[in-house]
Amino acid sequence: IIKCKQHIRIFIDAINVKGEMLDNIPTPDRINLLVIDAQGSEDKVLLGASKTLAKTDYFFCEASITPLYEGACIMDDLTRILDSHFELVGTFLNDRGTGDVLFRWKA
């Protein structure tokens, strides 16, 4: 669990959850759309999802230009991690620089 930064004004409770690498979870042979909402830990999820990503057409997640949590993944991190196999096809960010992004597997 990473500590709140900007979100501390909104969310004050934290819970511990058991994590599992995405590649260890059974998935179909082909994934049309993979959606991840990991509250700033998307980079950690992606680092344990190389096999899953290899069979994914589109990847959608929340993103922020600046970290909302201490040590949180930001838009630049997502782009760097996904750049070798995915291309950014859509950003849906609000005026505060937070929102959603859509990546597509490079043909």
State the gist of this model.
This protein has 107 residues and is α+β, with helices and mostly antiparallel strands. Helix content is 18%, strand content 29%.
The Rg value, from CA coordinates, equals 14 Å
Oligomer: single chain
Overall number of strands: 4
Strand order of the largest sheet: 1-2-4-3
Distance between the termini: 35 Å
Instruction: Based on Cα principal axes, name the global outline.
Output: globular
Regions with little confidence, pLDDT below 50 for 5+ residues: none
- Structure class: alpha+beta
Taking the sheet with the most strands, its summary is:
4 strands, mixed
Strand content: 25-35%
Number of helices: 3
Notes on the structure:
With 107 residues, the chain is an alpha+beta fold. It is 18% helix and 29% strand. It is built from 3 helices and 4 strands. Strands 1-2-4-3 form a 4-stranded mixed beta sheet. It is globular. It starts with 30 loop residues before the first strand and ends with a strand. The model has no long low-confidence stretch (mean pLDDT 88).
List keywords for this structure.
single chain; 107 residues; alpha+beta; 3 helices; 4 strands
Question: How is this fold's topology laid out?
Answer:
Layout: E1 31-36, H1 42-47, H2 50-54, E2 56-64, H3 75-82, E3 86-93, E4 98-105
